[in-house]
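Lab notebook, bench 4. Continuing the backlog of folding jobs that were queued last week. Each job is logged with the same field layout so the records can be merged later without manual cleanup. Today's entry covers Glycoside hydrolase family 13 protein, a 551-residue chain. Filled in by technician R.K.

JOB TYPE: sequence-to-structure
TARGET: Glycoside hydrolase family 13 protein
LENGTH: 551
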Amino acid sequence: MVLFLETEAREGLLLYEKDGEIHQKPMERAEGGLRVRVFAHTSPFRYAFRLPEGFLGSHGLEKTLPRYDRFFHLLAGPNPPEWALGAVYYQIFPDRFRMGRPELAPKDGEWRYGGRPIRKKAWHEPLGLEGAFEFYGGDLFGVLEALPHLEALGVEVLYLTPIFQSPSSHRYDTEDYLRVDPHLGGEEALEALYQALVARGMRLVLDGVFNHVGATHSWFQRALRDPKSPERGMFTFRPDGSYESFWGVRSMPKLDYASPLTQERFVFGKDAPIRYWMRLAHGWRLDVAHSLGEGGTNRKNARWLRALARAAKEARPDALVIGELSYDATPTLRAHTLDGAMHYAGFAHPVMAWLSGRDVHGREAALSAGEAWEVLWDHYRALPLQVRHAMYTFVSSHDIPRALWRLRGDLELYKLAYALLFAFPGSPALYYGDEVGLSQPNPYTLWQGDPYCRAPFPWDEALWNREVLGFVKRLARLKKTHPALRRGSLLPLKAPEGVLAFRRRYRGEEVWALFAKEGARLRLPRGVDLLREEEVAGEVEGQYLLFRPAG
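JOB STATUS: finished
OUTPUT FIELD FOLLOWS
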């Protein structure tokens, strides 16, 4: 491969680790910097640069050789599928999005969940505290009906939270992985949705809940009743008969990937769900990917994530497999595992803490624009080059409070958050309803996402915020039409204090992105304000700006 370093230095060395030693290779002068050709003998390939002024790694210039974790990391392949790079996502929680066929909806008290009868609620009935027991009746036929709305919005990839048979409304406690929940319309509805998406040039990503099963799953029930059953080894039982589960929740017993039967049923077998459903989907988001592993822990986590991703790609070569990595995604993604991850630590958390003044748990977080930028910049540089544009990047999801609620209804800050989302490297993800200004009913003294962030979509258009909807459509259009925003590199941009600013560059095109929570006055060269589609030069004022300099 050829590495090019943009620099004013006239000489330099490439440093790379091989067989425990640091090797070095002189770099040649090239227009605008230095370059070197090198064979990547392993993956990930770790490298840094030695320049006259110091050592350059992912954390910038240092006076001494950086630690290996501060080297740059390059994966030799396979790379994420081309279609996923910078793609615009839309996340749907199926029970709360749209009711297509009312007769499919569960009936009030139709079954018991956790010893209590389920509730069937009217579409506009307020949310209750027990979200898993409450069903509103959304289904996949409803999603199919909504495709014109999503297409007009600019959506390219649909991500559905779990759709397989389950006794709860969130469906993260699966009881049959090979059966689409009948209350969502079954496989007939999934196939119709898949075909309609393909016809529109859109793609579908499913939620893979492979860290745990539901306690009502027949495999777990056999393991529970008979200690000598083959299924017993699929789970981690303690001497007192209790068992390991997701976050200690008994309804979600954790799978043990040390078990050959677990491996066969979830990874290697032809009916393993990650393979089976690739005929009706284009990829997977792996639930709690950071927790999956052996012996009731995440032991050998990277090995099994790698195996799951390989299984999906064997069934569909252009499949995308990303993970819910709720904390630092860097070590996992450097380990040649997944195509990307939900960008919590490197985007959602720092951005929303800066804008709202509170972290995701509601604790005070006095983060300045400069400090927020340092977190974004740090995580971006630490990620392997190939996965940066496949990161699922967002400000709202089904697990955290909605962005508009966190910002206390401040529409300008909300628009700033979404402008930053679409300007940043990665694949921007809209959470259903965010595009029309859907918020939460709970008071700020009760800082909570689930269940309040899972309200039904307001299909009464009189309830929509048209300003927000138009703004999001413009952002999606810009992401899709400007290569610098979709595939460009990320570079710092000098700006006044209080302004978070960066540049995106790709093959001669450059876009400047500037964001000021309190507003700012900026002095610009001649260019185009992309959001307003007008030429500007000199002083401008505002809270957010996407600017393409002339020339």
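OBSERVATION: Residues 2-74 form one domain.
SIGNED: R.K.
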